[in-house]
Structure formats: C-alpha cells, structure tokens
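haha ok so turns out i had the wrong file open the whole time. this is the CORRECT one, sorry everyone. sequence first:
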Amino acid sequence: MQDRAPRLTGLGHALPARVVTNDDLARTLDTSDEWIRSRSGIATRHHVDPGTATSDLAAEAGARALKADLHTGGTGEVDLVVLATTTPDRTCPATAPLVAHRLGLGTVPAFDVNAVCSGFLYGLSTASAMITAGAADSVLLVAADTFSTIVDPADRRTAFLFGDGAGAAVLRAGGARTGHAPTVHDIVLGSDGGQEDLIITPGGGSREPGSDERWFTMQGQAVYRQAVDRMTGSTREILDRTGWAVDEVDRFVGHQANRRILDAVAHRLGVPADRVVANLDRVGNTAAASIPVALSDAHDRGILRPGDKVVLTAFGGGATWGAATLTWPDLG
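then structure:
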C-alpha cells in the first residue's frame, strides 16, 4: 500500500428542477421521441432556468458531497477545490473560487480544469496527484456543466443530446500512513489537439474574440468513431496497468454521451451489459458532470457496492480522453 493514496469519502450530485422531454423538444425541432431514443437512448434531460449558472449547480453538488463526507467520518472541510467545467460562469475569473466561497471553505486554493467531457477524469488525476504528493490532504472535486446555455436550441443535431448537471466527490489521503485503503488506483489520460474541430465552440476566446459563433458544434460521426476507439483503448490500458482482467470488473462507468457509444465500447471490451452503469436516459449528456452524476446516482440506487472493482472512461473535446480504476468504498 502506498504511503499516500486518494480515497473517496463523499459523493453528491445536483440536477436542475426543469425536466425537458423528447416531446418537449419535438414541439420546436424537426424530431420525435422515437428518433431521439433510437439514436441516443435519451428520454429526458434537465435544463437550467434563465439566471441559473454553473456555479449554482456546482455549489449544490459540492455541499452534498461534503455532507456525505461528514457521514463517513470526514471533517466536511477540504484543502483544495478543483472544478471541471467547459461552461464557467464567466471567461474571467475562474468559477472554482466562487464555489469554494459559497460553500464556506474560506481561502483554500481553487481552480478550474477544462477538458470538456473528460473533465472529471482530468480533475481526478489532478486531485489524486496533489494528495499523493502531499500538497493536500483533502480535495473537493466538482464537475459541472450547463451545456443548454451554449447549444443552439434550434440545432437538430445537438439540442437533444445535452442536459445540465453537476457531480462532486471528496477525496482524502489514504494509504499506509493513514491505515485506510485507497479508492483510486490508477488513471491514464490522453489528448490530440489536431482534432480540436471535432467538438468546438468557435467564438468567445482569443482566437475569434469578436465572433458571433457562440454555439457549440460537433462532428457527430467522427466523434462517435473517436469516442469508441479512445474509450476502448484507454480502458484496456488502465486494466493492464492495474492488473485487472475484464471479467473482474464489477461496474463499467463510461461518459454518458450516447447509449450507442456505451454499448459499442462495452461490446469491444467484452463487458457484460448488466455491468454497464447508465443513466443518460434520464439526464442526457451532462458533459464533464456525466461520470460523477452517474456514480452518485448509482450509489443512491444501491448499484455500487463496497469492494466493487469499477472502471471509468471518457472522451471529450480537445480531443481528450482517459480512464481510471477504483475500488468502491463503503459510503454508508
């Protein structure tokens, strides 16, 4: 056992109250419930109301994770806040310090990470490294996105896919020094900036500061192929590094982008369908939040049990991707 290794002690998620059904979308788009379900597996998603920002969802999810941390014997306080998001409240400043302030965490360091739909895994790697290095004993990792604010509501290709949400996890130092078994075993990450145009919001940054192209765009078929290839490849790599065989995996939690992507990756890996965790039928693609929302939801429903061997994997804009292995803790 490592001297210092991250363990999960609290988990929580938050979804906006407003539920948008496929039939709701069909009133303004040339689409139907059957068309959306057959192409994505999504039936409903949650959208923020005007005036609600990413920080609102992030703070709510963070508060729930901190409360859960107290339940497992934690302090409800942390040394660091990391927020994974593509939809910050503002271009400047970062949103994480505001989330830390709203949670009453004082003047702890806080910063944003942007790896789009791979954001939670990039944040998990960052938080884990800080704990392992001794730079922090505890980290609140939040992943939150409000993609309904950047997706063109009139775009039939993307409007049906995305929902808003936030998921949060409290990580504390475990390992030989503490006597607590670690939760996070290993993480692999990758990127390919040559494919930045696969998933992109063209305007608003320093490249095109005056552009009117404020809407998110995506090359659907190319993203599908890359997502399946990269999620499959990174999962195989992480299993090899951890020393787990595919048939040892109890739960497979992929980025909740599209049911066809999840099924294709599981099929390539040989993961049985009953071990695939999915909730995108109810929440859609919540971008960086999708994995922690799926984990928190699965924990609440009793799907994840202490001791389960869990694999996470994601693909997102950048292009970015990654995978991680965890042993599920007893969160009560």
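The chain has two domains: 5-174, 184-327.
again sry for the mixup
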